[in-house]
Fold each of these.
Amino acid sequence: MADRLFAGALLIVAIAYTYIAFAILKAPFQYDPLGPESWPQILGCVAIPCILYVLWRPDVASFDLEMPTWARVGALFVLLMAYAWVFQPLGFILSTLIFCFLLSLMLGAKPLKAGLFGIVTGVAGYFVCTRLLELNLPAGKLFVGLL
Amino acid sequence: MDAVFSGLASGFATALDPFNLMLVLVGCFAGTLIGALPGIGPINGVAILLPIAYGLGFKPESAIILLAGIYYGAEYGGRISSILLNVPGDAGAVMTTLDGNPMARKGEAGKALSLSAVASFVGGTFAVILMTLFGPLLAAYAVTFSPSDYVALMVFAFASLASLVGSNPVKTLLGAVIGLMLASIGIDANTGVARYTFGIPDILAGIDFLVVVIGLFGMAELIHLVEQQARGTLKTLEIDKSFVTMADLARTKWTILRSSCIGFFIGILPGTGASVASAVAYGTEKRVQNNPKSFGEGDIRGLAAPEAANNAAAGGAMVPMLTLGIPGSGTTAILLGALLLFNVTPGPLMFQQRPEIAWGLIASMYIGNIALLVINLPLVGLFARLLTIPQQYLTPLIAVLAFIGVYSIVSNPHDLYMITLLGLFGWIMRKLGFSLAPVILGFVLGSLFENNLRRALSISAGDWTILLQSWNSIVLYVLTAIVVIVPIWYGRRVAARNARSEDESPKAPA
């Protein structure tokens, strides 16, 4: 079932991809026998039969995950998206501190240790990366004047 | 031959430059450390550290020496978690657990670790020596390849990928096609037409290679680690005082040599890396020895074979990458992408045009292998202690490193969402039995494949028969047919033999 769902979604994407390749992509003028549309056409024609085969003979029935595991993966995804969202506005130190604290807490660390871990990673990570390795990291609006 | 020696001499001049020498050692050390961490293999380590190495602004040869050091260092380190924890870092280390872990449980952990270090060293060094001898020859021959020959080579690469990697050939092929499709996004360089960009400015230049690599091999791995979290805590076995003896080495010397050969040649095949090599080497050794009872219960030969093979495969996989521009494994696909980031195009001309990179890398592998042996014998206890780093701190660090890496290159927050989404996509694919290495191979080879096809047809003014007009391409298509048909035929034969009753005399294979 899981295999079929994924393959079904892929099939829709692949059909759209192939349709665009055949109907929309076109160079205004070209000298070569193969234009920008030929390669995607070939790929689409290979992908669709492969997907149909998976639909016809799926070999993974389900994800075999229990509810708590689903919840943990879901929470991780939300945390990562939130981390990406606040990375620039809050700056590396603060966003990393919060992210590390919450994730290690979720994975079973004690609150005090998780907090310490967050602070060390955020602060030490920032200074090691920006000062020592000269990488570019966001300082964040709050800290622009300070750092 | 003279060219080999003078090239090697210039390579050592590059590799022994104090800064590069330090990078070899740092790379090997970091690689062993990453490989030793349970659940993280060479490909994840190289993927996560690639953007940081790129962001540091090193010269291309220095960066590639560092990344290659991490790659084969992690192949060494992978055995530590396999032996002591029974948790392989990646698919290439799975075979090591079969005999390595039982040895450790029998109280021979020290012996298992030291023997596998020696086997790894022999396998790795063997591969580098063969690479030194054959690499330039292959490159000199590959210079004569025409675009249509390259098309044939790609077809061969993807066919061997589909037929040898992963459990389901169709899924492997589909994975590679997904990679090729991802690579087709962005402005077509020949005509300036935007393909599949839907007006989003961030992907006009195509999806960034670093984003795909970090997404599929950093974030997907992270999600996988979190998913596995609740399945019991890991328990490390103690390292005892036992050590490898001369008698052990004498007993395994042919095993190690045989497996090194197997590993190297399987590594050369495009797309098939350490995982296939170690499995084949283990299987062969079991058949050669005729006493499979002790295999799986802590036989030293069963430990030495896959370890020698996976390190030899790591070296072998570099050969097609350096000489043809076609990676021999998922990890070398990432290294190839790394070279492209530095505007270096790996291929037959690299030995002449950028000798400091090609030869510098080869020379650094000689140094690296010796360094790894030295690091691994006395310091194995230190690495073993790392196995006990609590996962709840390690996991967030992977995410932080991935974010730092992606952000420090282009400073575009849009990429941070992209890696998270690609990570989710990669995790789902993994859960469904797709392997991710074909995706990255497809992504890296996409434009090379397309451009050579278009060039070939431009030469022939649209006549498709040009693809079959040179001996090189015909030989490659024959090899493609062999690589597709033999595993199917062999699988049928094994299935047929299992179906037949055992006392019946086996018929000659049809």
Note: Chain A has two domains: 2-56, 67-132.
Amino acid sequence: MMTLTYRNILTSVEDQIGIVTLNRPAVLNALSHELMGELVAALEEFDRDDNVRVIILTGSERAFAAGADIKEMSDESTISMLNKNQFATWDRVRMVKKPIIAAVSGFALGGGCELVMTCDIIIASETAQFGQPEINIGVIPGAGGTQRLTRVVGKHKAMEIILTGRSITAHEAHALGLVNKVVPVELFLDEAKTMAKEIAKKSPVAVKLAKEAILKSFDGSLCDGLEVERKNFYMLFSSEDQKEGMRAFLEKRQATFTGR
Amino acid sequence: MTEETILLTEIKNGVGFITLNRPDKLNSFTDELTFRLQDALKEMEKSKEVKALVITGAGRGFCAGQDLQSRSISHEEGVRPSLGDSIRRRYNPIVTKIRRMEKPVIAAVNGVAAGAGSSLALACDYRIVAEGVSFIQSFTKVGLIPDSGATFLLTRMIGATRAFDLMLSAEKLDCKEALALGLINKIVAPDALMTEATELAVKLAKGPTKAFGLTKRAVNKAIFNDLEELLEYEASLQEIAGRSDDFQEGVKAFVEKRTPAYTGK
């Protein structure tokens, strides 16, 4: 496995869990172009690595990510922004096939909130804050915020959050269904690891196909989604994991999944 | 008295001290004093040196609550101030900061604690009180509701029966009765107050700050889990009370030193 050297993130692997930690503490993990490039490279590396079954994306206690790097953008024009095509990098985050758990503490604002919503499961510390404050600086969310937030919390709440630019607490986010679980700040990463370990025990191929089918529900009709779900369901019957899983169930023992 | 000195802070032996210092006005809250207190609390929370905090008042009062003659509440005829807004910006952040700060906070109550001054003492973790001092829920005297957390701090600490009566009667609660109700920790001789409060603070500062902080977090979860929501609700209700004729009359009568003639409107 090739190991890349990163300047803006840290990576590690433990118990089949790949961990990416955003690491620009001086700027509360502002999502610069360079950081996003490294993040995508790390995620894709984990996606290819057979020793990794689940990915955790996290920041620090103080900030998951406080937003985009405004310094990089303040003097841009429409044309220069188009030519930069920065969101191509973001599209690659959503193409990752293994599940990504976001472990969030402190600020998850703007691009930070959008990055969280691109993940599949969200564990928040009690001190986490979510928001899309772009409106306060005269723009709108550009990395999926208007679409993903709306699908998760519904039109009216999304309007309130995006049009007022006000951030919400972890508990509010939990009540809105935006985050899976809220835990004391000292434990948010542990909680994410606990959930990651549980998922890592399942058949990796089934987990990937389930993720693909769930994400399909976001784009397209129910019919299209059901078709993908059914196709993936049938496809799993060609895997060893399906045979092992069902046999273990009938024999009343714990299954051992290999990903084949 | 200059603006500079209306609030004093000191850090010594792991203990942070905050002294409200408008003794000629019984340390009542002006806009400036509330913001200065917010800043001081933030600093004490951040400081790695500070492991326990003591809040007290200079002179013969602890804190008489809102200064009714200061600009955010005084008003010309026909102009009604937004009390909800004032509470959200000035008082609620103080209560939230004291409750959420994961360090023990001691109120060394040297003199009368009235209105928001009483709430300030109630928001703390300990109340060490000088003999002879009383607490007054003075809000309803001028047609307002108890605020800065008073409605639920008092209710959850001593039960609704006594709390409701104290709020509506706006009568003095003597420290001996407060002790019997479990509202305060200890009564001490006035000249021993700061020594006692400091001794307690130094002792707490030497303790396991993390465990103390986590204990406070658990206590908050048990009885103040909805702190922010309740403060917000109280502010909304005060906004309504602040628009009433009774409040106008209450403040006017207070300034004119006469009995108010309330209409219920």
Note: Residues 62 and 90 of chain A are 23 Å apart (CA to CA).
